[in-house]
Write a structure and sequence with these properties.
Layout lengths: L1 H28 L10 H13 L4 H31 L1 H16 L2 H12 L3 H25 L3 H9 L4 H39 L4 H11 L2 H36 L1
Helix pairs in contact: 2-10, 3-4, 3-6, 3-8, 3-9, 5-6, 5-8, 6-8, 8-9, 8-10, 9-10
Length: about 260
């Protein structure tokens, strides 16, 4: 199994290298202007220069901090709301329409309001990121709690388990894979929220840097920033996978 996974990883890297080579050759053969589509070598040069001079690091730290705070706030509230709505049918019927209505409104349309309410800077971006993280955790937690096998619920009732004991001992452990799947989705969307928030109301961060490169018409630098955004997203997603394996490890051992 390990050798097969290693071969797939090597094949993926080779495919990536082949795509970069084809991109480079196409740009040179067709004489595509760097303003329209820079070759990978030009992007790598801009990326290396920005990292070596320290130009990217303040922006990278700002976006990473906004992402972390937004994920913690949004996922915490989403999980708590999912448990509350999953355990209280009356509360679910009362509040769920308002939750759905709050999510169908595009966050980009709300961004100017958040800037007006919270000012320019990190707060408005964190709020946007938290709102984007909120719904995946709420929906997955709510669904997971409602899909516990009925025979297991009956067994806990026969054993005299309280509602809290049933939630803590049965529903949450059974629904943990689905809840963590919602966390993975939330983390990916959170980076989108952080960057979009920086488009509107930030002077620092990778999103603000994308807007700055548009103004200066520096396309290679813009692609370099996009590479950093993708790398940050991949790193956070991988950290989520490690967290998932750690949380599910006791259940895999018992099985």
């Amino acid at each position: 199994m390990k050798s097969a996974a290693l071969r797939m990883r090597i094949a993926s890297l080779l495919l990536f290298a082949a795509l970069l080579l084809a991109w480079e050759l196409a740009c040179r053969a067709l004489a595509v202007p760097a303003l329209v589509l820079p070759p990978p070598s030009s992007i790598a040069s801009s990326l290396w220069h920005g990292l070596a001079t320290g130009y990217f690091w303040p922006h990278l730290r700002t976006t990473a901090l906004e992402l972390l705070l937004g994920v913690l706030a949004g996922c915490s509230f989403g999980f708590a709301a999912g448990v509350a709505l999953g355990e209280q049918a009356t509360l679910r019927r009362l509040l769920m329409p308002y939750v759905i209505a709050s999510q169908v409104v595009p966050k980009l349309a709300l961004a100017p309001l958040f800037v007006l309410w919270f000012g320019f800077g990190i707060t408005s971006t964190v709020v946007i990121t938290a709102l984007i993280c909120f719904f995946p955790l709420l929906e997955n937690t709510l669904t997971a709690l409602q899909q516990v096998p009925r025979e297991r619920l009956e067994l806990f009732r026969m054993l005299g388990a309280s509602r809290v004991q049933t939630l803590w001992r049965l529903k949450l452990p059974s629904g943990l894979p689905a809840i963590l799947a919602g966390l993975r989705v939330a983390v990916v969307l959170a980076l989108v929220g952080a960057v979009v928030g920086e488009f509107i109301g930030a002077s620092q961060g990778l999103g603000a840097l994308v807007i700055a490169t548009q103004g200066s018409m520096d396309t290679p630098l813009m692609f370099a920033v996009l590479v950093l955004i993708a790398a940050l997203g991949m790193a956070v997603y991988q950290a989520t996978l490690w967290l998932e394996r750690w949380l599910l490890l006791p259940f895999t051992r018992t099985s």
